[in-house]
Structure formats: C-alpha cells, structure tokens
Amino acid sequence: MSKQVKQLDRVIIRFAGDSGDGMQLTGDRFTQESAVFGNDLVTLPNFPAEIRAPQGTLPGVSSFQVHFADHDILTAGDAPDVLVAMNPAALRANLGDLPKGATIIVDTHDFTPRNLTKAGYDANPLDQLGDANDPLGEFSVQPVDLTGMTVEAVKEFGLSRKDAARAKNMFALGLLSWMYGRPTDPTITFLEKRFAKVADIRDANITAFKAGWNFGETTETFVVQYEIKPAPMAPGTYRNITGNLALSYGLIAGGVQSGLPVFLGSYPITPASDILHELSKHKAFGVTTLQAEDEIAGIGAAIGASFSGSLGVTTTSGPGIALKSEAIGLAVMTELPLVVVDVQRGGPSTGLPTKTEQADLLQAMFGRNGEAPVPIVAPQSPGDCFDAALEACRIAITYRTPVMLLSDGYLANGSEPWRIPEVDDLPAIDPRFATERNKTVVAKDGTESEEYWPYLRDEETLARPWAIPGTAGLEHRIGGIEKADGTGNISYDPANHDLMVRTRQAKVDRIAESLPPLEVDDPSGRAKVLVIGWGSTYGPIGAGVRRVRKAGFNVAQVHLRHLNPFPKDLGEILERYDKVLVPEMNLGQLSLLLRGRYLVDAIGYNQVNGMPIKAAALAEAIGGLVADAEGVTVDLTPASISTEAAQ
User: Fold this and answer.
1) Mind listing the domains of the chain with CATH numbers?
2) Phi, psi dihedral angles at 561 (to 5 degrees)
C-alpha cells in the first residue's frame, strides 16, 4: 500500500488524557523531535491543579499542545488541528476547542460505560459515528485501540497489564511521529537513559514507540503522511527551552557576568518551583540554593546574602509576593541588590496554580507599605526569560535595588527554540564594591578624619556604595527603621524622611536613562492604531497584528520589557497614534498605568480565563479599531489572510 505525502506549512497538535497518562512527557518528546528537525515551535502545557484528580474525570484531564511550522510563529495556536484523546474525559474536555474538520485520534480502550459516565456522556459518541445525529460529525475521527495494541506489543516483557498499558503514550507518540515525519532516534535515546535501571520498562516503552511508528506505516487507517519542512533561522546553536529553564540560566549568567555568587532563597510554589530545582544543579557556577520553610524565610535569607556580598534571588508566584512584601520594602530601604521572581498564576490567594495570568502588575508596582518603588522587568517569550533575568540582575546590582521580574505560567511551562548566546556577547556587570573610606569629616577642633558612609551616592545612578561586611575600616549601619542621608544612622527627622523617599524614587527614575529607545513595529509608518503589551501577550499580539496586516491594513505594535520605570520615549510614541489598544490577561492594569501617567485613552482587551489570549479574537478587536480610525471595512475572514499569518 502506497502512502501519500502532503506538504503543510504548520500544524497544531494537542495530546490529552488522564493526568496519569503521560501526556506532558508525550508532548515534550514530540516537541524535542520537532526541535531537532528544525521547525519553529511554541508549546502550551495544561495540567490540573490537583496532584492526582479522580481518574477519568474532566478535572483530571491533562493536555500538551505543540504548534510547529516551517516559518516563524509566535503562539502555541488558537485551536488544534489534531487532537489525540486517550479517554472520554479528554475528548469531552477538548472538543469545544476544535475547529471544523479537525482530526481526532481517540483511544477506544477506555470508552467503557463507567468512564463515559464519569465524563458526562449518556452514550458512547464513537458508536454514533456516521449516524444522522453523530456528535462528532464535523470532525475526522480515527478510533484506534492504542492501549490494546500497546499491551499486545509489549507482552514479551512480562509486565502486568497495568504496567504494560502505561506505555500507550509512547505508542501514540510513535504514531504521530510517523504521521509528521519526526526523527525517532532522540526519543529512543531518551528512553534508554530515563529507564536505564529498569530494563523491562525501558524495552517496553521503546517497543511501544516503535510499534506506534510501524502501525502508522502499515495500517490502512492512515494513508497520508505529512511533511513540515524546517524553518529558516539565523546561524547559531539552538536548543528547545522552557521559560523557567531560560530564566534560571539568565540568573546564573547574571552571577557569572558580575563575578558574584548567586544565592537563591525560595519556598516551592507552582509554577515557579522548577527554577529552584534547576539552580540547585549548578553549584559549579557558584550558585547556592536554600529551600526555606516559608516564603518570608526565603526572601529574608536572600536579603542576608545580598548584605554579605552575593546576588540575592528569591522566586515565587503571586501568593508568595504578598507574603514577601514587607521584606521587599526592607530591601528597598537598605538599598541592596535583590532579584524577586514572580511567575504569575491565576486568581487571588491559592487561586489557579496551574493556569496563567498577568494580574500581579499592580501588586509589583504598589504592593508594599510606604513609598517603596521597585524596578519591574517582564520577559515576552520563553527564550526571552534569559535576557530579562540578566537585565534584572544588571539593574539590581548597578542601582542597588530589589527588582521584580514578572514571568507567568504560560512562559514558564511553554517552550520555543532558543539561540544560545555567545558568552562574549553578554554584558559585563560591575558590582563596584567599596574598598576604602569615602568621606572626609572635619571635627569641631578642625582636625580631619576619613570615614565610610554607606549612603553617599553615585551621581549618575544614585546607587549607594556596597561594602562587604568584615572589610576593615568600612564598618557601617544600613538603617532599618529609616536612615539618615549619608551615614545610615537611624533618623526620625521629617525632612530627612522626605529626602530619602524622593531619593529612592529618583533612583528608580534614573534607570530609564540607561534603557535603549523602544522599538516600534510600524512598517508603513501610516498606522493610526497602536497595540501595546507586556509579558507573554507578545505572541498573541504579534500574531493578531500579522493577521490585520496580511488583510491589507496598517497597525503598529510596541512591547514593553521595562514597566517601572517606563522607557523615557514611551509618552512620545503614544501621542503618535489615534487609538491605543492594550491586550492583557487581567482587567486592565497596564491600561490604568498608561492612562494615569500619559493621559492616553488606552482601550483594554482583557481576558482572565487562565489561558493565553487567542490571536484570531484579538485580531478582530484590532481590526475593529482600525476600521473606526480609518473609516474602512476590515475583512479578516480566512480567505483574506494567508495561512502563515494565522498564528
């Protein structure tokens, strides 16, 4: 039987099953195969908050979406072209996201009356295929007994049926690897290493993977194999990387480029825990990690490390920032370098631990008592987490201040190809430790003496000198209640307090002088609508803007990495455009700041459902503004847009 080979420019695949079915591993392996092949890609893992939700239920469904293409893409895709569903709950939970004509590969083994009831089905939808009332009639459904074939394929290894069935995810991976021409050697090598100590499990998984591939090659069920060519990329060495991993490497690079040991004081919290896990592996780079008993202890230890001459770092999510707020204020007052990483998640308090959101911006700006301003930096993509972390380290060390680094769950768990930078291209960061006394003091009798004052400031940055405790002759106080200008002695003087409050704000404002001009993406120079965003909305905004431009209309885009202070040219840029749209995964926090600072009529596009913004819906909103601004009709139907602009 001859198989057809069909060329595609991009595909979105979602693997979905019970949280014990290994969907995250399956998706990750398919992603690694695609990265090795050379496709551009973006991923979206999505898993339940419960450690082990009831098996076969809708709350227990775990999924992994990967969008890969032969061209540059920006998002994990709005809707899957292919859904691999391992049970009824996975089918039901994801059906609403599928476009008409999507392919569904479904494991028939678990479509039992009990599992159908758990998923809320009154009848088996697979029994109704082709009927007049077929609930799956608008999709291309391929029922396959993945579990049964897996158990049969691995029976030679003597595993129990339960253990044998666990390899069904590798069978599914093998089948999809065949369908899309993925290289298989990386996965086989991975399985050999992962299960090296358990020979039967290792061999069973490899056999299941190969069996899935062979099934695709020989079955009449799948007669088309798809080819997505590698994407053109700039020369260099690439690897697939998640946001949390890139952020960890950025913190290590910050330590290396400054010559400082890195100290992480952290309490585990989703979705930031992977940073603690990763940094604990890098003692060779001078990294010390402390898993503290709580959030407050974690940041307290990090501040102590900064006081002693290390680069202090603490990692958490929104609930942890709330607990750390007083200690962040202390770091502002003592003016010590500190990087505070907030990997944002949905909802207040415990909220939605495994879902993404951008709702901590105002907390980062104002979530401390008193006037305690901190710089805020936000990465725009998983790979950009490296550069944003390095920038946060630069600001913290150069300006002697805590810095908030706002990532989020979408960036943290998602991945993309990342070009590994050359070490020589990374910026050097000079901690400029104080080594000698800096103040000449004249006594009443006219005699002069040299003293060390810890709050004499650099004229350019307003940063104070940083003396490592124990340095002879540089003993000093750092305040704590409030400090006298220059000496650091405790002061209750109202005028001094006013001076210190204004100085701390002025120091943050000075950071804007070191920032490069904003890059405004306005190819025609005739756009009347500007779309401005921050953080992980970069991908959906870019994809939405592409759609509008491909339809023949003008729109400008600018993205903010620095949220406090804002870049000094931002106000002038906002004034150029008639309408300003601000997409955010919150109810309008950046919009509020832009309105208050620049008196611009910022229009919010707000989504808070725990998922990334969809490019198609955002494009409609952009198109509506363009239509109003230019007095035209904007057509964004698929026929008016090339397929490569879609995501």
Assistant:
1) 4-227 (3.40.920.10), 239-425 (3.40.50.970), 439-513 (no CATH), 520-630 (3.40.50.920)
2) -90, -40
- Helix, strand or coil for residue 518? coil
Angle at 551 (CA atoms; ends 545, 554), nearest 5 degrees? 55
**d(C-alpha 35, C-alpha 182), whole Å:** 10
> Quick check: helix, strand or coil at residue 208?
helix
Q: How many CA atoms lie within 13 A of 366 on its CB side?
A: 6
Distance in angstroms (rounded) separating the CA atoms of residues 314 and 405 = 10
> Which pLDDT does position 291 carry in this prediction?
98
How many other C-beta atoms lie within 10 A of the C-beta of residue 230?
Answer: 12
Q: Which residue in this structure is represented by tokens 């062979």?
A: 214
- Report whether 249 contacts 386 (CB < 8 A): yes
Q: What per-residue confidence (pLDDT) applies to 640?
A: 57
As beta bridge partners, residue 415 has: 242
Question: How much is the pTM?
Answer: 0.95
Q: Distance between CA atoms of 263 and 501, rounded to whole angstroms?
A: 28
Amino acid letter, residue 221: T
* Residue 647 pLDDT: 58
Say yes or no to pLDDT of 393 above 80: yes
Asked which of 308-312, 369-373, 440-444 is least confident by mean pLDDT, the reply is 440-444
273 CB neighbour count, 10 Å cutoff: 19
- Which one, of 385, 365, 363, lies nearest residue 374 by Cα? 365
- Interior/surface letters 177-192, b for 16+ CB within 10 angstroms, e for the rest: bbbbebebeebeebbe
Percent of the chain with pLDDT over 90: 92
- Asked if 364 and 322 touch (Cβ cutoff 8 Å), the reply is no
- Partners of residue 579 on adjacent β-strands: 529
| DSSP state for residue 466 in the 8-state scheme | B
Measured CA to CA in angstroms, residue 360 lies from 272, 319, 538 at distances of 14, 10, 17
Token pair for 70: 């032969």
Least confident of 36-45, 175-184, 442-451: 442-451
- Measured distance CA(166)–CA(201) in Å, rounded: 10
pLDDT tens column, 458-479: 999 999 999 999 999 999 998 7
Q: Quick check: 17 pLDDT over 70? A: yes
- Give the containing element (helix H, strand E) for 406: strand 402-408
Task: Based on DSSP, count helices (H) and strands (E) in the chain, helices before strands.
Answer: 20, 23
Work out the angle between the directed axes of helices 538-550 and 615-630 (0-180°, nearest 10).
Answer: 50
Using pLDDT thresholds of 50, 70 and 90, give the confidence band for residue 639. low
Residue 309, both tokens: 């001459």
Summary mean pLDDT of the chain? 95
Please state, in angstroms and rounded to a whole number, the distance separating the CA atoms of residues 533 and 600: 15
Q: Which residues does residue 316 pair with via DSSP β-bridges, in sequence order? A: 342
Band of the pLDDT at 149, cuts 50, 70, 90? very high
CA distance 42 to 44: 7
Identify the helix (H) or strand (E) that includes residue 230.
Answer: none
632 has a pLDDT exceeding 90: no
Whether the upstream peptide bond of residue 337 has omega within 30° of 0, thus cis, is no
Amino acid letter for position 465 = P
